[in-house]
Amino acid sequence: MTETYDFVVVGGGSGGCAVAGRLSEDPGTSVALLEAGGPGDNWVVKTPYALSLMVPSKLNNWHFETVPQPGLNGRIGYQPRGKALGGSSAINAMVYIRGHKWDYDHWAELGADGWSYADVLPYFKRSENNAEFNGAYHGQSGPLHVNRLRTDNPVHEIFLQAAREAQFRVRDDFNGEEQEGLGLYQLTQHEGERWSAARAYVHPHMATRPNLRVETGAQATRILFEGGRAVGVEFRKDNETRQVRARREVILASGAFQTPQLLQLSGVGDGEMLQRHGIATVHHLPGVGQNLQDHPDFIFAYQSDAPYFTGTSFTGIGRLLSTIGQYRREGRGPLATNFAECGGFLKTRPDLDVPDIQLHFGMAMVDDHGRKRHWGTGFSCHVCLLRPKSRGSVGLTSADPLAAPRIDPNFFGEADDLEAMVAGYKTTQRLMETPALRALQQKDLFTANVRTDDDIRAILRARVDTVYHPVGTCKMGAANDPTAVVDPHLKVRGLEALRIVDASVMPTLIGGNTNAPTIMIGEKAADLIRGEMR
């Protein structure tokens, strides 16, 4: 017998957990949440350091790859995405960033009415339980814990000294009045443990809310339609095909790759593309899977025997093992690291209105997302381009619902992005060449022989890849935008009872990490839905 709920939420990531958690606060509203991965509640997810085990592997990770990228010398890129309750918030670096005020005001200008910064700030505050900041820009009573680092790493002061030496502003709060500057990141952690969207919105209620059903190991394969109305979801669990029905709505929250893929598998998308895969068109909606945007990212890395860093060496491993007891007792020390402990937002030109690059300063040498190991300890510094002009796409590799989606970020598809990254490289290099950071460097892994602009372009093409912020493939827009997939209420255009609540709805990529904004989307979606139910 097929079970029926008011809402069926597909995908237990940041948006899905937030909207399912909020809707199920009403005991009269029943919610089913389908997640393809596991429960996301074991030590690997909870221990921040263990992201180094998950990101390079298939542990709680979809482990996707891109099609060959012409802008990156034909290389195939890597796209880790979380596969567990919490989605990518179960495997990410936990950096709590909202993006710039300009980003949301720009959304509103593009036709996303109700999504200006003034409109979304209350939802950021509602979600947030910030241990450090309060006031006009922060909340301290939400379910998402936000805290200062608990690694007690002396390198923080060295990083701040380097920022001053490079004549960059030092900033305490990247989510307040202004964003530009360098400093220490706040993290989605609590008492030294990862605080994923699932821990915030779903785990506390699974045993106490009979109106919330959470089904893990359940991969959605098709949206069920009756005419133009979504009425349920077909999914695979334990090698069986099952169905669950929705009285009110089906809510897609599978992320920028798998939400468009599920729509396409269900007959919603560009009709010609669907026909090529033998899929009958339910609704021709050509914007599905288009407008993919992601932050192209380059990493500087240095070997260092300074006692602040981790890595593959007898000293580094021994130092880490010696701190396990401290972490268990106090939730402090190196095991609490998110690796990207410091960073910030810079302008490559003083005439820019908003910062155009972001840095993540890491406590280990990183090569190919941690998939290539180097002997020794050291540190890294990521630089990513915040608002690239290039647009990619997500499509189908086949009509098999268990196949991976076809992912094409189209990195450096626009020549301007490469030139902006050259400027970003030079700006970051200013920081790396300060006396404070030079004193830590024993060996430059990647950039020792880079001298000219052509050298910089060459190494960017050879080494750039994602910093894990794909968005935009089911963009939100006005009624007169032929590429918009959802309206400002997140409803899929031309269909009934189908809504999207994840990063795929972002019209443009925000200037920063995307976890907190996706949780905000889930919070705002719950309000939109409740407003329509009254």
From TrEMBL:
> Keywords on this record?
FAD, Flavoprotein
Q: Which domain of life is it from?
A: Bacteria
Q: Does the keyword Flavoprotein apply?
A: yes
Q: Which coenzymes or cofactors are required?
A: FAD
Which Pfam family is one of those matched by this entry?
GMC_oxred_N
Q: Where is the Glucose-methanol-choline oxidoreductase N-terminal domain?
A: 82-105, 255-269
InterPro entries registered for this protein in UniProt: FAD/NAD-bd_sf, GMC_OxRdtase, GMC_OxRdtase_N, GMC_OxRtase_C
Entry-linked Gene3D superfamilies: FAD/NAD(P)-binding domain, Glucose Oxidase, domain 3
Read off the PANTHER family from this record: CHOLINE DEHYDROGENASE, MITOCHONDRIAL (PTHR11552:SF147), GLUCOSE-METHANOL-CHOLINE GMC OXIDOREDUCTASE (PTHR11552)
Similarity field: Belongs to the GMC oxidoreductase family.
Q: List the protein's name.
A: GMC family oxidoreductase
**Source species:** Rhodopseudomonas telluris
Lineage here is:
Bacteria, Pseudomonadati, Pseudomonadota, Alphaproteobacteria, Hyphomicrobiales
